[in-house]
Amino acid sequence: MWKYASILIGIILLSSHVQAQNSLSVGQVNRETYALYQKQQWKQLVLLAKKAIAHDIDFYYLRLRMGIAYYELKNYRKSAVLFKKLHEQNPDDNSLKEYLYFSYLLGGRNMDAVRIQKKLPGSIIEKYRIRKLKFISGVYAETKYEFLDDYAIDSDLVQQQTVRNELYHYSFGVNHKLGNRLALYHAYSWVDVKNTVVSEGISFDEEVIQNQYYLKSHFQLAYGTRLALAAHWVQTEVSGYSHTEQLPNAVVQGPWVKGNGPGEFNNSVQDIKTYTYGVTQNGFIGYLGIDQDLSKWKMHAGLLYSDIDNLHRWQQELTIYYYPKGNVKLYLWAGICNQMEEKGKGDWLNRNYWDCGAGFQFAKNSWVQVGYNVGDMYKQVENEGYSVFNGVNPVKNRIKVSCCQYLFKGKVSLFLLYQNQEEKNIYIENNNTNSQYINVQSITGGIKWNF
Length: 451
Description:
Blueprint (H helix, E strand, L loop, with lengths): L1 H21 L3 H14 L2 H13 L5 H13 L3 H14 L4 H13 L3 H8 L4 H7 L7 E13 L9 E20 L4 E18 L2 E21 L2 E22 L23 E25 L2 E10 L6 E10 L7 E15 L2 E17 L2 E12 L3 E2 L4 E2 L6 E13 L4 E18 L2 E19 L1
Helix pairs in contact: 2-3, 2-4, 3-4, 4-5, 5-6, 6-7
């Protein structure tokens, strides 16, 4: 019996010895993290700080050194979380304000950076030449053009089809800073679409012109939490017309003769547009969204209402962003959008599509973003109520590639977006409803000047 008791006592003593070796003390953690801080061994410092916190060892300078280590490793979204808590404990420390400002700015949390900018002392403002907030903080202009193939069905049996021939889009917007927690953006857009329409076997041309005004406000509810409210007014003018050729009246200048002498008819023709219909519709879009930053993550949720084309639609969207390195040099996202369209009293049609992609920095001041959508996209509204898709063809999938180049220390940014989408064109031929898939490419270019 004493034999088994001695073995048990030995095991207990051995485990106690191992536990003592693995245990950490506040003094030991303080000395070792300070030494790693002086040697600028940031990765080791983070690992030791995590281990200490896991052992319930936590104090002000441990969090401070850990935050600086994350900052030096360019994990700005992690360092911002730590510096924010330290700033709440010590709000008068200017070095903390400086670290927190740049953690927000370099981590992609611009509205948080603007808010903390108000607390920075003049010496830091002058040192880094930080621009003061202005009522007009920037102007933006963009244009879009589509590349379309001729997908009209060449048959006398076609009874119904709409073919988009051209699309032009122009937009101009202005950014405002209304204090350190409120930002405003508004823009005017003009869209011109030219279609060829076959209806009841008769072919004619159609032009769709949209005049749009967009107004959006971003309000910071708290650090890391932003509320977006937007309204979009859309006026759509649709006109159909056909072309006729008419010979002008001949002018008799002398006796009739053969050949090219006086009195010969002028055989040039005039193109006359005969308008068959004209309709003007007014639509409204309202949007409510919220963003929440959580360390390396950001979540976005939005609710949208539209009555474009006199049809009531609701959209619900949810997107999650992930920053693997804790900065904007690499980010991933995935989201889903659900659209409810009213078909009748109490009857709704549901459509949904998925969105995913990645963005990364490929050169100094240059970013690329690649995205992919798949699902049922029809008359959807995107980008917080800004982008209105009002075509007649449902979109089944879409590839998006964009790049952004900053110039003159960030005062000017150039934006280019290429989209390639597969649309489903529906037509009626010989009393049968058919469909064909078409490929549509577009280029959108923009420039923004930050004041």
